[in-house]
Design brief:
By secondary structure, the protein is α/β, with parallel strands linked by helices. It contains 15 helices and 13 strands.
C-alpha cells in the first residue's frame, strides 16, 4: 500500500498512534524545557515521514496534533522548532496548507520547516554531524525503507533526545527471509543479528517468531545506548495477528515512565488493572475473557522472589523492577497493599498509620 493510499482513510490504529505521540510530546516538552532554557533555549520535533497532515476524511494526523499541543502552551510556543519531511511533494504541499490553517499557528516563534527529501544516508550524516537541541524524533515510514539503527542513533546520541518509530512487523517479518532485502534488514538489526535471525526464524512458530524479532530489535537498540525501550503492539482488525509496533526509545528513565503511563492509558484492555500495551480492536468483542488471567498474582510472586530479605521503599522497588515489564506504578502499590494484608511484607508506616487504602512512594517495605 502506498503512503497516499494509507492516508485515504483513517483507522482506529492510526488515531491511537497519533494520540500516543502527541501526548508524549507535550509531557516530554514540559520536562525538558526548564533545562533547555539554560542552554539552547530551543526544543525540536522532527518527523521524517510526515504525510499530508490530514487523512482523506479530515482527521488530523500526528504533525497537526503536535502543533496544536504547542500552540496551547506558552512555554512550548517560544521554544519549539519543527522539521517536517515527506519525499512526496503532494504530501508536503498538503501538509503546509493544513499547518497554515491551524488556528494560532502564527503564535509559534519558529515557523515549521517542511522539506522534500529521500530519507537515507544523507539525512543520517546530517544529523550525525549536528549537536542537536533536545529533540523528539518520530519515524513513521509505511514500510521500512529509510529506517535504520544508524538513523535512530543519529538523534538519540544527544541529550534530551527521544525517539518513537513505526516498526512494520508484517513487512519486516517477510523481509528477513527475502534475499532482495538483505541490506535493509542489516541496517535495521545490524548484520550479525540479522544473520542470526535468518538462521533461526524458519524453525519458530509465529508467536515465538514475533517475540524473537522484537527481542533482537530491542537488543540492537540497547547496544547503541537506548537503555529504555518500550514497544506498543497493534493487532489487525480481526485481532488475530500483529500488524505493527510503535517503538519508544530513551536514555532516561523519566521518559520511559511517562511513555509507559501514556501507552497504558491507550491500551485496549487491562487485566486486573495491568495494561496490555497493545491496541486490538477485537478486544471490545470479548471483554469477559480477559479476567481469566491473574497478572497481579504474577507480580506478587515476582516481588517475593526478587526481593527476599530486602528492605526498600516502594519507589525503589518500582524503579528496580518495572523496566521491561507490563506493570505500572499503581500495580506495584496495589500488590504491596495485598502482600501487607497477607502478612508477606512489613510496611513502615503500617496500614493503620497511613491514610486509608494508600501506599506512598516513601513507605519502607521489608520482605519477610
Amino acid at each position: 500500500m502506498s503512503t497516499k493510499a494509507f492516508f485515504n482513510e483513517t483507522k482506529e490504529q492510526s488515531i491511537v498512534k497519533s494520540t500516543i505521540v502527541a501526548k508524549y510530546f507535550w509531557a516530554w516538552a514540559n520536562v525538558i524545557i526548564p533545562t533547555a532554557k539554560k542552554t539552547s533555549n530551543k526544543i525540536a520535533y522532527i518527523d521524517l515521514f510526515a504525510g499530508p497532515g490530514r487523512y482523506k476524511d479530515g482527521t488530523k494526523s500526528t504533525p497537526l496534533l503536535v502543533l496544536e499541543k504547542a500552540i496551547l502552551d506558552n512555554k512550548i510556543r517560544e521554544m519549539l522548532v519543527c522539521y517536517f519531511n515527506d519525499k512526496d511533494p503532494d504530501n508536503s504541499q498538503s501538509l503546509e496548507k493544513s499547518i497554515a490553517e491551524l488556528p494560532g499557528i502564527e503564535t509559534l516563534k519558529y515557523k515549521p520547516q517542511i522539506h522534500n527529501k529521500e530519507v537515507g544516508t544523507e539525512i543520517v550524516k546530517m544529523f550525525e554531524k549536528m549537536n542537536l537541541v533536545p529533540t523528539l524524533f518520530f519515524v513513521d515510514p509505511w514500510g521500512y525503507k529509510g529506517l535504520s539503527l544508524r538513523l535512530v542513533n543519529s538523534v538519540l546520541k544527544d541529550w534530551g533526545c527521544d525517539c518513537i518509530f513505526f516498526f512494520n512487523y508484517n513487512r519486516i517479518n517477510m523481509g528477513l527471509s527475502n534475499p532482495y532485502f538483505i541490506d535493509h534488514m542489516n541496517s535495521l538489526f545490524g548484520k550479525d543479528r540479522a544473520n542470526e535471525l535468518r538462521a533461526v526464524l524458519s524453525k519458530l512458530n509465529p508467536y515465538d517468531r514475533e517475540l524473537k524479532i522484537l527481542e533482537e530489535l530491542i537488543n540492537a537498540i540497547s547496544d547503541l545506548g537506548g537503555n529504555y525501550v518500550l514497544p506498543f503492539r497493534f493487532k489487525n482488525h480481526k485481532g488475530a495477528k500483529t500488524s505493527h509496533h510503535l517503538i519508544f526509545v530513551s536514555k532516561n528513565f523519566r521518559g520511559y515512565e511517562i511513555m509507559k503511563g501514556i501507552m497504558a492509558t491507550e491500551s485496549s484492555k487491562k487485566e486486573q488493572g495491568v495494561p496490555s500495551f497493545e491496541y486490538n480492536s477485537a478486544d471490545k468483542k470479548y471483554p469477559r475473557l480477559f479476567e481469566l488471567n491473574r497478572p497481579l498474582d504474577d507480580l506478587a510472586k515476582m516481588l517475593i522472589k526478587d526481593f527476599t530479605d530486602c528492605t526498600l521503599t516502594m519507589q525503589e522497588i518500582y524503579i528496580r523492577h518495572n523496566v521491561g515489564k507490563r506493570f505500572i506504578k499503581t500495580n506495584y502499590k496495589e500488590t504491596l497493599k495485598q502482600l501487607e494484608q497477607a502478612n508477606r511484607i512489613i510496611a513502615d508506616p503500617s496500614a493503620d498509620k497511613r491514610r486509608k487504602d494508600t501506599f506512598a512512594d516513601h513507605v519502607m517495605v521489608t520482605f519477610c
